[in-house]
Write a structure and sequence with these properties.
This protein is mainly α. Helices cover about 80% and strands about 0% of the residues. Helix 1 packs antiparallel against helix 2, helix 2 crosses helix 3 and helix 4 packs antiparallel against helix 5. It is globular and about 40 Å long.
């Protein structure tokens, strides 16, 4: 798992760096490959495939992996937009998790 966290971190770094350098397609493609392989190292091949190919997450997986494919085909801006939409559909539990963490921490100026 430690290698997977490092590979995922490098993937996120390359994705951020690729966006900062005006959607450099090589950096974005490298970041996507590292992110997906790091996720596979962390949770395993079977669980990764199970996560992406669940029936209720099909639309999110389609857009996310389609965006990765568009970035790999050197259409970085359209690919990142499609991939971002798929990411939001796939990982829609983040707002719920953030609300839970904020309610558990109980910081007055962060809680609304």
């Amino acid at each position: 798992p430690e290698i997977g966290v490092g590979v995922t971190g490098f993937g996120l770094f390359f994705l951020l760096f690729g966006v900062l350098l005006y959607f450099d397609s090589v950096l974005l493609a490298f970041g996507n490959v590292l992110f997906l392989s790091g996720l596979t190292f962390i949770i395993g091949l079977r669980r990764t495939a199970h996560f992406f190919f669940q029936r209720q997450k099909f639309r999110g997986s389609f857009f996310f992996l389609g965006g990765v494919s568009l970035v790999l085909c050197r259409w970085p801006i359209i690919g990142m937009l499609v991939e971002s939409y798929g990411f939001v559909l796939l990982f829609s539990f983040f707002p719920m998790a953030l609300a839970f963490v904020l309610s558990a921490v109980n910081i007055p100026f962060l809680n609304a």
